Structure formats: structure tokens, C-alpha cells
Amino acid sequence: MAGVMGMVLGAGGPVAFIYGFIFCVLCNLCITASLGELASIWPTAGGQYHYAYMLGSERWKRISSFTVGWLSIVGWLTLVTTAAYFAGK
User: 12-24 burial, b if ≥16 CB within 10 A, otherwise e?
Assistant: First the structure.
């Protein structure tokens, strides 16, 4: 949150921060609802890469699962790195 506030407050002010926050909450609710629907169909500990594999066509299921798995790892590493960066700043 601290990483985003510095950019938003300088660019659009508090109004952009409030509307951006509301927009992000609504988008996260949509993502949560769709992942909850998938989890009710295929309960697994695998995560999104498992759903990408199950929903993909025969041609694309392996590459889409692989890509989603690595994007999840990169996102997690980015989150951890950002937290360490702001803690050390």
C-alpha cells in the first residue's frame, strides 16, 4: 500500500487514491468470486495453475499452466521484494 500511495498522491491526489482503492476492491471481489467458483468445482491445493490446466484446451493446457505458475512465483517475489525495499528505505 505504501508503494502505491506515493505515486497516486503525487499524480492524482487523494481523489484518485479513493477511487483507485474502490476500483481495486471491486476487481479483487470479482477475482475472489471467480476463484471461489473454480474451487467449488475442483477443490485443490494447487492454485491457479491447476485451474489453468483444467480449463485449457488440449493444445494450450500445459503451457498456460506453466506460465500461470511462474507468474504467480514472480508476483510473490515482487511482493516480498517491495516489502523489504520499503522496510530498508
Answer: eeeeebeeeeeee
pLDDT higher than 80, residue 16? no
Q: Strand, helix or coil at 70?
A: helix
User: For residue 48, with 0-12 CB atoms within 10 Å meaning exposed, 13-18 middle and 19 or more buried, which class applies?
Assistant: middle
Quote the CA–CA distance of 54 and 18 in Å, as a whole number.
Answer: 37
Q: How far apart are CA 72 and CA 66, in angstroms?
A: 10
pTM of the model: 0.66
Do 65 and 56 touch, CB atoms closer than 8 A?
A: yes
Nearest to 68 by CA among 82, 83, 54: 54
> Using one digit for the tens of pLDDT, what is the confidence trace for 62-89?
999 999 999 999 988 988 888 788 777 6
Q: Provide the angle, in degrees to the nearest 10, between the axes of the packed helices 48-55 and 61-88.
A: 160
